Every structure is written in structure tokens, then in C-alpha cells.
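thread: overnight batch results

M.L. [08:02]
morning all. the overnight job finished for the chain we discussed friday. pasting input first so we're all looking at the same thing
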Amino acid sequence: MRQTILLAFLLVFPAFLFAQSQPPAVSNGPQTFKLPATPKTVAWGYYDAAASPVLHIHSGDTIVFDTLLTNSPTGLERAGVPPQQVQQSLRDIYKEVTNKGPGGHILNGPIYVEEAEPGDTLEIRIQKIELAIPYAYNGGFLPEDFPYRKIKIIPLDKERMVATFAPGIEIPLHPFFGSMGVAPPEAFGRIDSAPPGVHAGNMDNKELVAGSTLYLPVHARGALFEVGDGHAGQGNGEVDITAMETSLVGTLQFIVHKGTNQKYPRAETPTHYFSMGFHQELYEATRMAVREMIDFLMAEKHLSHDDAYMLTSVAGDVDITELVDGNKGVHVMMPKTLFVK
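M.L. [08:03]
and the structure it wrote out:
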């Protein structure tokens, strides 16, 4: 009996050792990851094709991002935020991060999507956005009218989803990320996080709430997606430079579409298709957004060039996204209800 047991052990043990030496089996299904905002996971003020990714994922995977408002702990406390309400992660990042770009945004990432290559489209499904803290701030200036800077702390009611701007004034909350983007082409180098562009980035588009989808052209291997600049709400134009700036938790799913050769960021909500344009001159940004909608209607709805242009005029809404980020932003909204088939 003892010999039989010993023989069985000798036969099974080598197989056990072999199994222990193998890498874990790759899951056949999409995975969900959690990415906190820490000094090791954020890119401060830049998008860059040469940046080192903080997480590798596959097409179909989902990430739950923690993101932080862009203001210093000291600045928040001076504006009236109790010290205990300043996130420790924000204190850590301000203390430890020294690798900073030319912009001011604290962005989570970059994320490397294994299947993404130049010429592809990265689809970002914005599944959920939640408030992380009970306040937002707003502060900016028109130099000719407001030759000083003031920060206003705005309490947020997560249960009622309203902001108390002032006695008798409540603002409905529609949280979204002001900045979502991929790395620009390698030749651009490290670019400022403030102006939006072909990489998307700091679009400040208040329509990109939970339930919407963003489509970005991929310019660098892995796409190198970053997200941040959380807003509890904003008016189109963002005319005093900031919205209701706050920290958010966002759940985003990533899907790669191969060989699309998409040239410019696009988006959709449950009710509308969006085209975008970004340029230093508002008129040029508008021309870009209109041309992008024409191209979309021709490619996806199979309209002629003339009909696509005419439909954009008779049914599309041209809105100013933002006016304050170096490049002005314009988007064209096309109702989905027009397309009955």
C-alpha cells in the first residue's frame, strides 16, 4: 500500500511542478480593472506618444478610473475647503510628482490598449460617472473685466444631484470628463494638456456624460489613453476658464476598430451624432466641425456630398463647446431620429 501511494506521488508531483511553472491562463473574456490616481499613475499636464503606460489592457476591457480635480491642496484650503475634505491622493501627487508637462491637468494614464495601432479607431464607451467628493470649485477671469482671480467652492448634493451655487440657485449635475484623449502623433512630441486637437484631449464637451461614446483616431501604438479634468457640470463655452471642477470616478470600456483611418474625434449620445472641430480661430473650428459632419454623413449614412451639407444646415445644431483652451472648440449635433431606417 505504501509503495502504491509513493508511486502515485512520484507520477503526479512532476505534473504539479510543471503546472506551477506555467504563466496564468489568459482569460477568454473581457476584464475589468481599477486604476486609482496616485503619483505613479498620473500624467501631469501632457499627452505624449513616448510616455510610459501605467496599465496594459485588451480591446473589450473596462477600467474604473479615479480622477482628481486640478487644484492644489493649499489653494482649496484657502478657498474654504476643510482640510479633511482634501483628498490624500491629491496631496500625495502634489508632493511627489516632478515629471510635469506644460499644462496643468492631472490626468490618469496613459493606458496601453494592446490591439490599437495607428490607423485604427479607439471606441470609448462611457458607462458610468460618479462624484468622488462633495464639492466643486470654479474660478477664472476676463482680464479686461475681472483683473483678479477668485475661487468659489460649490457644495454638491450627490443624493439630489444638484449643486448649491448660491441661496436660491441650484444647478442640476451632469458629470463628465473635460479631458479624454490619446497620444498625438509621435512627431508632435509632448504636448500641452490644455488645447484640444486631433488627439481629442481637453475637449470640455458637456454632452459626453454617462451613456455616450467617444471615437478617437489612434496615432501611436497602444493609443495611450488618458482621462481627467472632472466636471460636475458646465455651460457651453466654459467662459470663465473653469466649469464645476471636481473629482470623479468613471467606468469606461475600450474597443478597438481596425483599419478605419478615421481622421478626427467623433462622438455619439443616445440621441445625437457629434462631429468636432478645434482651432485657434472660432470660424476655422466651425468649418472643421461642419466638414467632419459632412464626411460622417457621407461615410455612415451614404448621403451625397451635397445632401450631407444641406442636411447639416437644415437639421444639425452647431454649438460652441469651449472658448478658453487655446484652441476653440465647436461641435455639430445631428439628431438620430432623422434616420428612420
